[in-house]
Write a structure and sequence with these properties.
The chain has nine helices and twelve strands. It is an alpha/beta fold and 314 residues long. The strands form four sheets. A five-stranded mixed β-sheet has the order 4-3-5-12-6, sandwiched between helices. The longest helix is centred in the N-terminal third of the chain and has 28 residues. The chain is rod-shaped and about 105 Å long. The N and C termini lie far apart (95 Å).
């Protein structure tokens, strides 16, 4: 005997239902009357009746209420629908609460990153002020070099990044909120002949051994040396800031220190100010992605960063 062919049965289409219909349905069910429900909703009785008729039609036409001489009563179909309508209403109410909290900075989240020396004073002061004003916002932070932070920002893993630029063109893919301009210092051993003196041109250190976070000066603070017409000789590649100071104190070379980190220099290291010639050596920005709607907390955090930048010593 030949097998019967398989009959494909399409799943029932999901009904297109208005949340307003469900709201009216629940009110009628609570009041047991179209007239009383209409009064509670501020509608006319005929408008309430039309909403219920539309809801019944969307679910195949089965009546949801028995129309009685005095009021209405839920049918079996109506009783079955009640918990689903309540779940939808509660979900929409919850969404409304969370969206309001997001707008008012009473909730939501902020994911940001910052380069290491910004974490010395600028970011902690801004973060303390932000948390005091908006304790309901969940904050996550990470530390990294500017190129990595911008990659994380572009990929959507961060909402905002505190970054620095060293004389390069503006980053066109990002909205840059200027925070401050930094001067530079050359960190030298405490007994160096230039220690304790006034500002000097960076070229005075053209023949020095340099300690840097990378073997190439491009894209680092040592861009400033390239702009002064010499290529610094990187003798030691040291990533950690405290370790760089140890190398300097031991007389193994000199390194550049931005103003944001100047207050944390150890006592056996001296700072020689670099003479600013033309543009500031480094600019610090809060960056967001151009064309992407920022989270509401980002704008408030930029404000806190600007306030903290204004309080930092010149």
């Amino acid at each position: 005997m030949a097998a019967m062919p398989y009959a494909h049965v399409e799943p029932p289409a999901e009904p297109e239902v208005s949340s307003v219909w469900l709201r009216v349905f629940l009110e009628v069910g609570r009041q047991g009357s179209f007239t009383v429900a209409a009064r509670a909703l501020g509608w006319t009785q005929s408008a309430v009746s039309r909403q219920i008729s539309s809801l019944e039609a969307a679910f195949g036409g089965a009546p949801l209420f028995d129309r009685l001489p005095r009021g209405v009563r839920l049918t079996e179909a109506g009783r079955l629908l009640v918990p689903y309508a309540e779940a939808v209403a509660e979900a929409l109410h919850g969404a409304g609460r969370e969206l309001a909290a997001l707008r008012e900075l009473a909730g939501g989240r902020l994911r940001f990153g910052a380069f290491a020396t910004a974490d010395a004073a600028l970011v902690p002061q801004a973060l303390a002020a932000f948390r005091a004003r908006h304790p309901g916002v969940r904050v996550a932070r990470e530390e990294g070099l500017t190129p990595r932070l911008l990659e994380r920002l572009a990929a959507g893993h961060l909402d905002l990044a505190v970054v620095s630029t060293t004389g390069r063109p503006p980053l066109e893919s990002y909205e840059l909120h200027h925070l401050l301009d930094e001067s530079l210092y050359v960190a030298v051993p405490a007994d160096h002949p230039l220690a304790g003196g006034g500002p000097v041109r960076l070229g005075r250190f053209a023949d020095a051994d340099w300690i840097s976070g990378g073997a190439r000066p491009e894209g680092t603070l040592l861009d400033a040396a390239l702009r002064q017409g010499f290529r610094p000789r990187v003798a030691h590649v040291v990533a950690e800031w405290t370790a760089k100071q140890g190398y300097v104190a031991a007389g193994l070379g000199v390194t550049l220190v931005p103003a944001l980190a100047a207050a944390s220099v150890r006592s056996d290291v001296a700072l020689v100010p670099v003479l600013d010639e033309g543009a500031p050596a480094r600019a610090v920005y809060a960056a967001t992605v151009r064309g992407r709607s920022p989270v509401p907390a980002a704008g408030a955090f930029v404000g806190a960063l600007r306030e903290a930048a204004g309080r930092l010593p010149s």
